[in-house]
Amino acid sequence: MLIKSRELNLIIIKVAKSHFGNSIFNRRSLMDAAERAIRAKGFWEIEDDFVSESAGVKSKGLAKIDWGISKLKEQGKLLNISRDEWKVA
Questions:
Q1: Greater model confidence, 43 or 54
Q2: pLDDT for the residue numbered 55
Q3: What is the largest CA-CA distance in the chain?
Q4: CA dihedral 20, 68, 60, 43 (to 10 degrees)
Q5: Which of 39, 48, 49, 63 could covalently link to 54 via disulfide, CB atoms 3.0 to 4.6 Å apart?
Q6: What is the mean pLDDT of the chain?
Q7: Average pLDDT, stretch 70-84?
Q8: What separation in angstroms does the CA of 55 have from each of 5, 51, 67, 75, 89?
Q9: What is the pLDDT, as a whole number, of residue 57?
Q10: Which residue in 62, 81, 82, 79 sits closest to 16, CA to CA?
Q11: Is the pTM of this model over 0.85?
Q12: Residue 70 host element (H or E)
């Protein structure tokens, strides 16, 4: 990915706010929406499509987005309401 973690997290939050607002959403919906935004901005690299070694089957790019969501949860910017229910803080 052609951006650093900080920029990735800013995109994830921006996408979460614009796509879901105050609504509850599932993690994969945010991951997919963030991927589309990152691709549209030209930050996605060919290597981001390779299969990741992280838990579950996903690309390396989606694994980075998934990790970013976890970091945003730790920072209190995303709330994990219940199993696979998320909300912007």
A1: 43
A2: 67
A3: 34
A4: 70
A5: 63
A6: 95
A7: 97
A8: 20, 11, 11, 22, 26
A9: 78
A10: 79
A11: yes
A12: helix 60-74
DSSP strand pairing (85-88 vs 78-82): antiparallel
The one-letter amino acid at 14 = K
Residue 59: per-residue pLDDT? 94
Assess whether pLDDT exceeds 70 at residue 68: yes
Number of neighbouring beta carbons within 10 Å of residue 80: 13
DSSP 4-50: -HHHHHHHHHHHHHHHHTTS-B-HHHHHHHHHHHHHHTT---GGGGS
- Residue in the block written with tokens 């299969």: 51
Count of other CB atoms within 10 angstroms of residue 52: 17
Residue 40 has pLDDT above 90, yes or no: yes
